[in-house]
Specification:
The structure is a homodimer of 200-residue chains. Chain A is an all-alpha fold and 200 residues long. Chains A and B meet through α7, α8 and α9 of A and α7, α8 and α9 of B. Chain A binds a DNA duplex (30 and 30 nucleotides) through loops.
DNA sequence: AGCACTTGTGAACAAACGTTCATTTAATTA
DNA sequence: TAATTAAATGAACGTTTGTTCACAAGTGCT
């Protein structure tokens, strides 16, 4: 009973990952049972243990995969040297990457507290690496005078919180298109760091 | 065994509320058991039911109390008519109010999903009312030209996410004083909404 | 056809969960 | 001091939890 159709459909492990991401995102890791996840996939709870050692492992795998994909995708994007352009590139990248991965983002951002050691340390470092990418852009702009950012670390946390907050209220089919929302946030990010006396 | 000392010390219900807020904030509602809360207070789990009907009731009471305190405190603060001044007043109020209530803020912001009906609706309306306060300030400033904010609703969500995000990283005794952090965020909020061509 | 392997079932386990309750204890009132 | 009441105990309940296991079923290789 290994496979039903040749190529059609993802395998069980992938479907379980997606089901888990959706349920964790909506209800939180602790509120979701292995039976809930299994039911969504259409299998018994025991069968999940053919693919994941423990529930905690499933969460850690979900979060680590997401953070690694995020970092890899940003590294592919060759960020411009100019700080203002780099900031816009990062902002657009961040919003676009998160647009179709709302569940993963939610989990990666809210369930750090559900990770046990050493999973926590490993994934926290990935998250920190991503924030450092933005921080370096801001720090460079602050040095060259392209940005007003007396505390790049604070500005980084503020911007990331602002950008990631979109996933809390964005719903598909809403009044504004994803592109319109993206432009609005890019504009706010740019203005928040604009040096006194000029905007763009 | 009703009371130990005359006036000294809060009563058991209050201590349980605070313990619950701390544990819910750190581990999440679903991950905390009534026994955990009771242990923190130094009583048996059953004794909690002399003060709260259910665990869900305890959470709802925590969140509703917090939101009502927040709204009441803002209504006491007489916001200036001038949009720019009102924005600064709101920003400072928000950050100060949240400074000493990190646990409550965390719970009120992250555990909406743990509320069952009708608790969810009731508390969601309180939260919405608070956001409307900021939205009206921004909308007025957008009309008068004091702000650049083509979509006041979006700007509201962006600013609230940015401000509330502080609770995710702020730790007492850190490098920057609360006042310094407050000033930095006020500055970023003002700049994010500054009309093209001028800053203050 | 036969073997090894992967993936599923479904019952079972011990532990932990929210909640209830008969009972005791301490403080308050009369 | 006796009666009343509020609050705590600690055992017990039925349910759900994560996880395990003996077993069956389908697949690919030789």
């Amino acid at each position: 009973m290994a496979r039903l159709a040749g190529v059609t459909g993802k395998d069980t492990a992938d479907r379980a990952r997606r089901a888990a991401a959706e349920l964790f995102a909506r209800h939180g890791y602790a509120a979701v049972s292995m039976r809930d996840i299994a039911a969504e996939v259409g299998i018994g709870a025991g069968a999940l243990y053919n693919h994941f050692a423990t529930k905690q492992d499933l969460l850690a795998e979900l979060m680590e995969d997401h953070m690694k994909r995020l970092l890899a995708a940003w590294e592919e994007e060759s960020a411009p040297d100019d700080p203002a352009e780099a900031l816009e590139a990062f902002t657009r990248f961040h919003m676009r990457f998160h647009r179709n991965r709302q569940d993963d983002v939610h989990v990666a951002y809210m369930e750090l507290r559900s990770l046990e050691q050493p999973n926590f340390h490993r994934i926290e470092r990935l998250r920190s690496a991503y924030e450092t990418e933005l921080e370096q852009i801001i720090a460079k702009g602050a040095e060259t005078g392209a940005f007003h950012a007396p505390e790049p670390k604070i500005a980084t946390m503020a911007l990331i919180a602002m950008l990631t907050g979109v996933t809390n209220w964005y719903r598909q089919g809403g009044r504004l298109s994803p592109n319109a929302i993206e432009d609005l946030y890019v504009d706010m990010a740019r203005r928040a760091l604009a040096p006194t006396g000029g905007t763009a």
